[in-house]
Amino acid sequence: MVTLAGGVGAAKLLTGLIRAHPPRDLLAVVNTADDTVLHGLHVSPDLDTVVYTLAGAVNPVTGWGLAGESWQAMDALDRYGGITWFRLGDRDLATHLYRTHRLDQGADLATVTAEIAAAWELELTVLPVTNDRIETRVTTADEGEIGFQDYFVRRRHDVAVSAVRVAGSARARPAPGLIEALGAAPLIIIAPSNPIVSIGPVLEVPGVRQAVADRRDAVVAVSPIVGGTALKGPADRLMRELGHECSVVGVARLYRDVAATLVIDEADAHLADDVEAAGVSCVVAPTIMDGIETATDLARVVLGCSVEGVQP
Ligand code: FO1
Fold this sequence. Notes:
Helices cover 37% and strands 18% of the residues. By secondary structure, the protein is α/β, with parallel strands linked by helices. Strand 1 (2-5), helix 1 (8-20) and strand 2 (27-30) form a beta-alpha-beta unit. Helix 1 runs parallel beside helix 2 (45-54), helix 1 packs across helix 13 (292-303) and helix 4 (90-104) runs antiparallel to helix 5 (109-119).
Protein backbone atom coordinates (compact mmCIF):
# COMPACT_ATOMS: atom_id res chain seq x y z
CA MET A 1 0.00 0.00 0.00
CA VAL A 2 1.57 3.28 -1.09
CA THR A 3 0.61 6.76 0.15
CA LEU A 4 1.82 9.89 -1.65
CA ALA A 5 2.33 12.42 1.11
CA GLY A 6 3.00 16.03 1.92
CA GLY A 7 3.17 17.20 5.53
CA VAL A 8 0.47 17.72 8.15
CA GLY A 9 -2.66 16.39 6.34
CA ALA A 10 -0.83 13.32 5.08
CA ALA A 11 0.67 12.62 8.50
CA LYS A 12 -2.80 12.66 10.05
CA LEU A 13 -4.18 10.20 7.50
CA LEU A 14 -1.15 7.97 8.04
CA THR A 15 -1.88 7.84 11.80
CA GLY A 16 -5.24 6.32 10.81
CA LEU A 17 -3.73 4.02 8.20
CA ILE A 18 -1.27 2.46 10.65
CA ARG A 19 -4.23 1.60 12.92
CA ALA A 20 -6.41 0.29 10.10
CA HIS A 21 -3.80 -1.73 8.21
CA PRO A 22 -0.57 -3.58 9.13
CA PRO A 23 2.08 -0.82 9.22
CA ARG A 24 4.80 -3.05 7.74
CA ASP A 25 2.71 -3.16 4.56
CA LEU A 26 2.60 0.65 4.29
CA LEU A 27 4.97 2.86 2.30
CA ALA A 28 4.75 6.65 2.66
CA VAL A 29 6.34 8.46 -0.29
CA VAL A 30 7.04 11.97 0.92
CA ASN A 31 7.55 15.30 -0.82
CA THR A 32 11.06 16.74 -0.46
CA ALA A 33 10.64 19.90 -2.53
CA ASP A 34 10.00 21.84 0.73
CA ASP A 35 13.48 20.88 1.92
CA THR A 36 15.80 23.74 2.68
CA VAL A 37 19.35 24.31 3.86
CA LEU A 38 19.56 26.66 6.84
CA HIS A 39 22.63 27.35 9.00
CA GLY A 40 24.30 24.68 6.85
CA LEU A 41 21.72 22.10 7.98
CA HIS A 42 19.54 20.00 5.66
CA VAL A 43 15.95 20.42 6.86
CA SER A 44 13.24 18.09 5.46
CA PRO A 45 9.98 19.47 6.87
CA ASP A 46 7.52 16.99 5.34
CA LEU A 47 9.63 13.93 6.16
CA ASP A 48 10.01 15.12 9.75
CA THR A 49 6.32 15.98 10.10
CA VAL A 50 5.39 12.46 8.98
CA VAL A 51 7.94 10.80 11.29
CA TYR A 52 7.19 12.95 14.36
CA THR A 53 3.43 12.59 13.91
CA LEU A 54 3.53 8.82 13.52
CA ALA A 55 5.84 8.60 16.53
CA GLY A 56 3.26 10.55 18.57
CA ALA A 57 5.88 13.23 19.17
CA VAL A 58 4.68 16.09 16.97
CA ASN A 59 3.72 19.49 18.34
CA PRO A 60 -0.07 19.18 18.41
CA VAL A 61 -0.62 22.93 18.05
CA THR A 62 1.52 23.59 14.96
CA GLY A 63 1.41 20.11 13.39
CA TRP A 64 5.19 20.40 12.73
CA GLY A 65 8.19 20.26 15.05
CA LEU A 66 8.29 18.40 18.35
CA ALA A 67 5.93 18.60 21.31
CA GLY A 68 7.38 20.18 24.45
CA GLU A 69 10.14 21.84 22.43
CA SER A 70 12.50 24.50 23.83
CA TRP A 71 13.99 27.33 21.75
CA GLN A 72 17.29 28.22 23.41
CA ALA A 73 19.34 27.82 20.24
CA MET A 74 17.01 30.20 18.35
CA ASP A 75 17.19 32.73 21.21
CA ALA A 76 20.98 32.51 21.19
CA LEU A 77 21.06 32.84 17.40
CA ASP A 78 18.91 35.96 17.63
CA ARG A 79 21.73 37.63 19.58
CA TYR A 80 23.92 37.42 16.45
CA GLY A 81 21.15 38.58 14.13
CA GLY A 82 21.05 35.09 12.58
CA ILE A 83 18.08 33.73 10.62
CA THR A 84 15.31 33.06 13.14
CA TRP A 85 12.16 33.41 11.05
CA PHE A 86 12.34 29.68 10.39
CA ARG A 87 12.14 28.30 13.92
CA LEU A 88 14.19 25.21 14.66
CA GLY A 89 13.54 23.88 18.15
CA ASP A 90 16.40 22.56 20.28
CA ARG A 91 15.42 18.88 19.97
CA ASP A 92 14.37 19.21 16.35
CA LEU A 93 17.87 20.57 15.64
CA ALA A 94 19.29 17.15 16.53
CA THR A 95 17.39 15.63 13.59
CA HIS A 96 18.86 18.18 11.17
CA LEU A 97 22.35 17.77 12.63
CA TYR A 98 22.13 14.00 12.25
CA ARG A 99 20.67 14.13 8.72
CA THR A 100 23.26 16.65 7.54
CA HIS A 101 26.15 14.71 9.03
CA ARG A 102 25.01 11.44 7.44
CA LEU A 103 24.48 13.12 4.05
CA ASP A 104 27.96 14.65 4.34
CA GLN A 105 29.29 11.14 4.97
CA GLY A 106 27.79 10.08 1.65
CA ALA A 107 24.60 8.35 2.80
CA ASP A 108 21.57 9.08 0.62
CA LEU A 109 18.41 10.73 1.91
CA ALA A 110 16.37 7.50 1.74
CA THR A 111 18.92 5.70 3.91
CA VAL A 112 19.10 8.53 6.44
CA THR A 113 15.30 8.78 6.54
CA ALA A 114 15.06 5.04 7.24
CA GLU A 115 17.55 5.48 10.09
CA ILE A 116 15.56 8.36 11.56
CA ALA A 117 12.26 6.47 11.22
CA ALA A 118 13.80 3.40 12.89
CA ALA A 119 15.10 5.54 15.74
CA TRP A 120 11.51 6.68 16.32
CA GLU A 121 10.44 3.00 16.19
CA LEU A 122 8.16 3.37 13.17
CA GLU A 123 7.10 0.16 11.48
CA LEU A 124 5.97 1.60 8.17
CA THR A 125 8.51 2.65 5.53
CA VAL A 126 9.01 6.41 5.04
CA LEU A 127 10.65 7.17 1.71
CA PRO A 128 11.62 10.56 0.23
CA VAL A 129 10.29 10.70 -3.33
CA THR A 130 13.85 11.21 -4.56
CA ASN A 131 17.38 11.20 -3.19
CA ASP A 132 18.19 14.11 -5.50
CA ARG A 133 17.75 17.74 -4.54
CA ILE A 134 14.46 19.24 -5.75
CA GLU A 135 13.09 22.59 -4.63
CA THR A 136 9.74 24.27 -5.10
CA ARG A 137 10.22 27.87 -6.30
CA VAL A 138 7.38 30.35 -6.15
CA THR A 139 6.99 33.47 -8.31
CA THR A 140 5.53 36.27 -6.21
CA ALA A 141 4.15 39.60 -7.36
CA ASP A 142 6.60 41.78 -5.43
CA GLU A 143 9.78 39.73 -4.92
CA GLY A 144 9.91 37.63 -8.08
CA GLU A 145 10.91 33.99 -7.64
CA ILE A 146 11.65 32.91 -4.08
CA GLY A 147 12.26 29.58 -2.34
CA PHE A 148 9.36 27.64 -0.87
CA GLN A 149 10.10 28.27 2.82
CA ASP A 150 10.73 31.96 2.03
CA TYR A 151 7.20 32.01 0.62
CA PHE A 152 5.56 29.72 3.16
CA VAL A 153 7.10 30.85 6.42
CA ARG A 154 8.84 34.21 5.94
CA ARG A 155 6.01 35.61 3.77
CA ARG A 156 3.38 33.50 5.64
CA HIS A 157 2.02 32.48 2.21
CA ASP A 158 0.25 35.84 2.28
CA VAL A 159 1.41 37.03 -1.11
CA ALA A 160 0.05 36.71 -4.66
CA VAL A 161 1.63 33.86 -6.65
CA SER A 162 1.76 33.71 -10.45
CA ALA A 163 3.81 30.54 -10.98
CA VAL A 164 5.21 27.52 -9.16
CA ARG A 165 8.00 25.30 -10.45
CA VAL A 166 10.03 22.45 -9.04
CA ALA A 167 13.71 23.22 -9.61
CA GLY A 168 15.84 20.13 -10.22
CA SER A 169 12.87 17.91 -11.08
CA ALA A 170 13.95 17.22 -14.67
CA ARG A 171 17.17 15.55 -13.48
CA ALA A 172 15.77 13.92 -10.35
CA ARG A 173 15.52 10.15 -10.17
CA PRO A 174 12.78 8.37 -8.23
CA ALA A 175 13.95 6.93 -4.92
CA PRO A 176 15.18 3.33 -5.16
CA GLY A 177 12.28 0.89 -5.33
CA LEU A 178 9.61 3.57 -5.74
CA ILE A 179 8.51 2.78 -9.31
CA GLU A 180 8.39 -0.94 -8.52
CA ALA A 181 6.33 -0.27 -5.37
CA LEU A 182 3.85 1.82 -7.37
CA GLY A 183 3.55 -0.97 -9.90
CA ALA A 184 2.87 -3.63 -7.27
CA ALA A 185 0.72 -1.78 -4.71
CA PRO A 186 -2.89 -3.01 -4.36
CA LEU A 187 -3.85 0.58 -3.53
CA ILE A 188 -2.17 3.95 -4.07
CA ILE A 189 -3.46 6.72 -1.83
CA ILE A 190 -3.00 10.42 -2.56
CA ALA A 191 -3.17 12.03 0.87
CA PRO A 192 -5.15 15.24 1.54
CA SER A 193 -2.07 17.36 0.94
CA ASN A 194 -1.68 20.47 -1.19
CA PRO A 195 -2.12 19.28 -4.82
CA ILE A 196 0.18 21.99 -6.18
CA VAL A 197 3.12 22.29 -3.77
CA SER A 198 3.03 18.90 -1.98
CA ILE A 199 1.65 16.22 -4.32
CA GLY A 200 2.65 18.22 -7.45
CA PRO A 201 6.41 17.84 -6.82
CA VAL A 202 6.02 14.12 -5.99
CA LEU A 203 4.31 13.51 -9.35
CA GLU A 204 6.87 15.67 -11.14
CA VAL A 205 9.83 13.43 -10.37
CA PRO A 206 10.39 11.76 -13.75
CA GLY A 207 8.61 8.42 -14.01
CA VAL A 208 6.36 8.88 -10.97
CA ARG A 209 3.32 10.48 -12.66
CA GLN A 210 3.39 7.81 -15.38
CA ALA A 211 3.77 4.99 -12.85
CA VAL A 212 0.78 6.32 -10.88
CA ALA A 213 -1.30 6.93 -14.03
CA ASP A 214 -0.57 3.36 -15.15
CA ARG A 215 -2.29 2.21 -11.93
CA ARG A 216 -5.11 4.79 -12.14
CA ASP A 217 -7.84 2.28 -11.25
CA ALA A 218 -6.05 1.52 -7.98
CA VAL A 219 -5.52 5.18 -7.04
CA VAL A 220 -7.73 6.98 -4.53
CA ALA A 221 -7.19 10.62 -3.60
CA VAL A 222 -8.58 12.45 -0.59
CA SER A 223 -9.55 16.06 -1.24
CA PRO A 224 -7.64 18.64 0.83
CA ILE A 225 -10.33 21.17 -0.10
CA VAL A 226 -13.48 21.13 2.04
CA GLY A 227 -16.29 23.57 1.41
CA GLY A 228 -14.10 25.55 -1.00
CA THR A 229 -11.26 26.15 1.46
CA ALA A 230 -8.10 24.38 2.56
CA LEU A 231 -8.14 23.13 6.14
CA LYS A 232 -4.50 24.19 6.47
CA GLY A 233 -2.05 26.17 4.36
CA PRO A 234 -2.42 27.97 1.04
CA ALA A 235 -3.91 25.25 -1.22
CA ASP A 236 -7.12 27.23 -1.82
CA ARG A 237 -5.41 30.51 -2.62
CA LEU A 238 -2.78 28.82 -4.81
CA MET A 239 -5.43 26.90 -6.76
CA ARG A 240 -7.37 30.10 -7.47
CA GLU A 241 -4.30 32.15 -8.37
CA LEU A 242 -2.99 29.48 -10.72
CA GLY A 243 -6.33 29.23 -12.55
CA HIS A 244 -7.91 26.15 -10.97
CA GLU A 245 -11.42 26.03 -9.57
CA CYS A 246 -11.05 25.97 -5.81
CA SER A 247 -13.44 23.15 -4.97
CA VAL A 248 -13.53 19.37 -4.91
CA VAL A 249 -14.32 19.59 -8.64
CA GLY A 250 -11.07 21.52 -9.18
CA VAL A 251 -9.23 18.82 -7.21
CA ALA A 252 -10.90 16.12 -9.35
CA ARG A 253 -9.73 17.88 -12.53
CA LEU A 254 -6.17 18.12 -11.18
CA TYR A 255 -6.09 14.41 -10.35
CA ARG A 256 -8.29 12.83 -13.02
CA ASP A 257 -5.36 11.53 -15.09
CA VAL A 258 -3.83 9.74 -12.11
CA ALA A 259 -6.72 8.83 -9.79
CA ALA A 260 -9.93 6.89 -10.47
CA THR A 261 -11.55 7.84 -7.14
CA LEU A 262 -11.79 11.00 -5.06
CA VAL A 263 -12.98 11.03 -1.45
CA ILE A 264 -14.73 14.30 -0.64
CA ASP A 265 -16.15 15.60 2.61
CA GLU A 266 -19.85 15.44 3.48
CA ALA A 267 -19.91 19.24 3.30
CA ASP A 268 -19.34 18.90 -0.46
CA ALA A 269 -21.84 16.08 -1.05
CA HIS A 270 -23.85 18.33 -3.38
CA LEU A 271 -20.82 18.41 -5.74
CA ALA A 272 -20.50 14.60 -6.04
CA ASP A 273 -22.20 14.54 -9.46
CA ASP A 274 -19.87 17.29 -10.73
CA VAL A 275 -16.84 15.30 -9.52
CA GLU A 276 -18.13 12.27 -11.42
CA ALA A 277 -18.75 14.47 -14.48
CA ALA A 278 -15.06 15.42 -14.29
CA GLY A 279 -14.32 11.72 -14.83
CA VAL A 280 -13.57 10.62 -11.27
CA SER A 281 -15.63 8.26 -9.07
CA CYS A 282 -16.73 10.06 -5.97
CA VAL A 283 -16.97 8.78 -2.39
CA VAL A 284 -18.53 11.05 0.24
CA ALA A 285 -17.30 10.66 3.84
CA PRO A 286 -16.27 12.70 6.86
CA THR A 287 -12.72 13.81 5.98
CA ILE A 288 -11.89 16.22 8.79
CA MET A 289 -9.35 14.47 11.00
CA ASP A 290 -9.57 16.09 14.44
CA GLY A 291 -8.21 13.07 16.26
CA ILE A 292 -7.07 9.49 15.96
CA GLU A 293 -10.61 8.09 15.71
CA THR A 294 -11.66 10.29 12.78
CA ALA A 295 -8.32 9.62 11.07
CA THR A 296 -8.83 5.87 11.46
CA ASP A 297 -12.42 6.09 10.17
CA LEU A 298 -11.21 8.00 7.10
CA ALA A 299 -8.39 5.48 6.59
CA ARG A 300 -10.98 2.66 6.58
CA VAL A 301 -13.04 4.51 3.96
CA VAL A 302 -9.94 4.93 1.79
CA LEU A 303 -8.89 1.29 2.20
CA GLY A 304 -12.40 0.24 1.21
CA CYS A 305 -11.94 2.04 -2.14
CA SER A 306 -9.34 -0.43 -3.36
CA VAL A 307 -10.12 -2.46 -6.45
CA GLU A 308 -9.64 -5.66 -4.49
CA GLY A 309 -11.64 -4.25 -1.58
CA VAL A 310 -8.67 -4.54 0.78
CA GLN A 311 -9.97 -4.94 4.30
CA PRO A 312 -8.01 -4.02 7.41
N1 FO1 B 1 6.37 26.48 9.71
C1 FO1 B 1 6.16 27.76 10.11
O1 FO1 B 1 5.08 28.31 9.83
N2 FO1 B 1 7.12 28.46 10.82
C2 FO1 B 1 8.30 27.90 11.16
O2 FO1 B 1 9.13 28.57 11.79
C3 FO1 B 1 8.54 26.54 10.77
C4 FO1 B 1 9.70 25.87 11.13
C5 FO1 B 1 9.83 24.51 10.83
C6 FO1 B 1 10.94 23.80 11.27
C7 FO1 B 1 11.07 22.45 10.98
C8 FO1 B 1 10.08 21.80 10.24
O3 FO1 B 1 10.21 20.49 9.98
C9 FO1 B 1 8.96 22.49 9.80
C10 FO1 B 1 8.82 23.85 10.08
N3 FO1 B 1 7.71 24.56 9.66
C11 FO1 B 1 7.52 25.87 10.03
C12 FO1 B 1 6.68 23.92 8.85
C13 FO1 B 1 7.01 23.91 7.35
O4 FO1 B 1 7.48 25.11 6.87
C14 FO1 B 1 5.75 23.59 6.55
O5 FO1 B 1 4.81 22.92 7.31
C15 FO1 B 1 5.96 22.72 5.37
O6 FO1 B 1 7.10 22.94 4.63
C16 FO1 B 1 4.72 22.73 4.47
O7 FO1 B 1 4.33 21.41 4.30
